Amino acid sequence: MIWYPYQQMKTMKPPYKVVNAEGVYLYTEDQKLIDSVSSWWSVIHGYKHPELTEAIKSQADRFAHVMLGGLTHEPVEKLSEKLKEWLPGDLDYCFYSDSGSVAVEVALKMALQFNTNRKKTRSKVLSLTRSYHGDTFKAMEVGDDEDYHFAFGEKKDVIHIPTEIPALEEAFKLYHDNLNCFIVEPLLQGAGGMQMYDISFLERARELCDEYDVLLIFDEVATGFGRTGFRFVADLVCPDILVLGKALTGGYIGHAVTVANHKVYQGFYGDDPALALMHGPTFMGNALACSVALKSIELFEKEDYISKISRITDITRREMEGYTDSRIKEIRIMGGCVCIEVRDPAVLEGYQQFAYERGVFSRPFLNYMYAMVPYVITEQELVKVLDTMKAWFQ
Ligand SMILES: *Cc1c(COP(=O)(O)O)cnc(C)c1O
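A: This is the predicted complex of the input protein with pyridoxal-5'-phosphate.
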């Protein structure tokens, strides 16, 4: 029996059973659905993309997996070279893991040990209110989600601030001596309710991190690969550590990477074995995952995904312009993300089934009805997704 995620199993309605998927569509026995969620924001090229599928098949004919402890292989070498060249600044050092949460754990461990390696005791992490960084323990702790409050008393090593510059400056003033890092979902906080904020906050954060010698971590597990309209937010403000997941493999296989810059890498480099990073997920650098990730990046470049995403933004703005309803608190749009925030979560009860019957898969949560579509969606399909969202309020 399957224990489903984020569900009270006793009252959960049965999930829709997918029997096939292709392009932006999921197929159940009786319905064809546009996936407006991109399977938790990861399937940017749509399902069953011939080139991605081929990348996996041809690698599977060689070998599916070998461990990275004492071994290496071409797919992981090529992907790391590509990321080194493709990512901004000197974000050159790739540490792989099997999920975004683990990649966040690795980033936080790096930041802590970076300081102990240089004989500094800095135990605190600065993070944002409404942030989400994954479901493992330290990721839960730095995140700000009521659902996890059972796990922690007072959080003595994490300080949460809103995305406001005065609060940021105040936190650095008070805690800089004891901060090892500042971790953020840059520009767009996904699971915290598609909260959007201005780049000036991150520019100021970069200055303060430099001034006080605190590492800046961008968790771009959700925002990476174009979701905000920028390839990476790291292209605008460069962090010391960048975490990528979700769309890294085009949504084909769970994999993630923690990318460190030269300064962080140097903090672990030396003759003393005790300086080394002690981490090694069994499936890190999986050959199938690396092959498909490399192909995904090639497609992203070759087919100019940034212009596809800006087309999605334009259509979304056009369709949502001026749309209001007394039950709606706010409509937010950024890149390939649109969110209708309602005043009362009860307003969204039943929406998933309503959308299903109209050929759209949606998964609203709390007060948020949103779409994060695959970038290959046509104008007509996107308009259908947006019309379905609006139709709920008619
Ligand atoms: C989804 C997500 C994670 C966790 O990734 P998993 O692969 O589910 O472990 C971490 N950070 C952010 C910003 C995410 O959206």
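Residues 18-48+304-391 form a domain with the Aspartate Aminotransferase, domain 1 fold (CATH 3.90.1150.10). The mean pLDDT is 97.
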